[in-house]
Design a protein that fits this description.
alpha+beta, Phosphorylase Kinase, domain 1, 5-stranded antiparallel β-sheet, 3-stranded antiparallel β-sheet, about 10% strand, globular
Length: about 325
């Protein structure tokens, strides 16, 4: 495996030893009795533990230099606003009047540990429940925009990632010309689809099936990527299967969604553009975080020439998808 110059300043979580985390928790009056069990998280560091009163918690240590204090607090405030409307989310605990705490340079928050089964994307009853709650989430989200958190757009999702990838040394030299040629073609296509900026509301931001637990209904977790964007951003990642299956799922979601919020069918044209934005943003995110030791372990294929060859093919496929008619609903919509 080759080494690469860090495209941006990398931050290591080396200081997060068990002792450090224990003292951080003690600083807010929480004494961890069990060991801290690492949970699946790459952007931040998240651990489950039991305190001396046998209560089960999750503590999240935020990656420094990613979000400002104001941005994290906006996420917390949005989550609490959803909870006030009886929307099933995992809110940060209020301790000493605060949801966000700081210890020796790290921001961290405490959450009650919630369990659940995996959300079944092919279960239309569950899909309907999720659609109904997404309508309620967006009903709250459209009341006012985020002020400090970002808005989905071309700069963050295309232009900055392209520059970062150009400056890195990840793309094999024999692929550079075809990779950036096809990437620029994809960017050109995406710019055409983004000419009229869609209406923006506060979103979950990363509402893929892995961020929905199933208990007696859906439980929405991990609003770390909450931001302003079009409503369809929180819906399209719930779709799976072929086009007929996706159309059925979408109709079930939107019928339930429309009980609480109005959906503009014109936003269906943004599904493939948003998929393209996510594709480019994702590979740049991996490149940006590569010097975090957790990333080469979790994503070893990212440093393989075969991955980049597949990305050139993926660009071509996504350009083709953008040129096809958008996913549509049956006439009653």
């Amino acid at each position: 495996m080759t080494t690469h110059d860090a495209p941006m300043t990398a931050f290591h979580f080396d200081a997060l030893t068990p002792d450090f985390m224990w003292y951080a928790l003690e600083s807010i009056g929480i004494r961890a009795e069990s060991g801290l069990l690492a949970l699946n998280s790459y952007e931040n560091r998240v651990y489950q533990f039991v305190d001396e009163e046998k209560k089960r918690y999750v503590v999240k240590f935020y990656r420094p230099q990613r979000w400002t204090q104001e941005q994290i607090l906006e996420e917390h405030q949005f989550t609490l606003a959803l909870l006030e409307q009886d929307i099933p989310v995992a809110p940060p605990c209020l301790i000493n009047g605060m949801t966000l705490h700081q210890y020796q340079g790290y921001y961290f928050a405490l959450f009650a540990s919630v369990g659940g089964r995996q959300f079944e994307v092919d279960n239309l009853d569950q899909v309907e429940w999720v659609g109904r709650f997404m309508g309620r989430i967006h009903q709250v989200g459209q009341a006012k925009p985020f002020i400090h958190r970002p808005t989905i757009g071309l700069e963050e999702y295309l232009y900055q990632p392209r520059q970062l990838l150009q400056q890195s040394s990840f793309i094999p030299s024999h692929l550079e010309n075809s990779f950036f040629s096809d990437l620029d073609s994809l960017i050109g296509q995406l710019e055409q689809h983004w000419v009229n900026a869609p209406s923006q509301i506060r979103l979950h931001g990363d509402c893929h099936p892995g961020n929905i637990l199933w208990r007696d209904g859906p439980m929405f977790v991990d609003l770390d990527d909450a931001r302003n964007g079009p409503a369809i951003q929180d819906l399209w990642m719930l779709l799976s299967g072929d086009q007929a299956e996706q159309r059925l799922q979408l109709e079930v979601i939107l019928e339930a969604y429309s009980e609480f919020a109005t959906f503009d069918p014109q936003q269906l044209k943004l599904i493939e553009p948003l998929r393209g934005l996510r594709m480019v943003h994702y590979m740049a995110w991996l490149a940006k975080r590569w010097h975090d030791p957790a990333f080469p372990i979790a994503f070893p294929w990212f440093n393989d020439a075969k991955y980049w060859e597949n990305q050139v093919l993926a660009f071509k496929e996504q350009i083709f998808a953008l040129q096809q008619p958008a996913l549509s609903l049956t006439p009653q919509w």
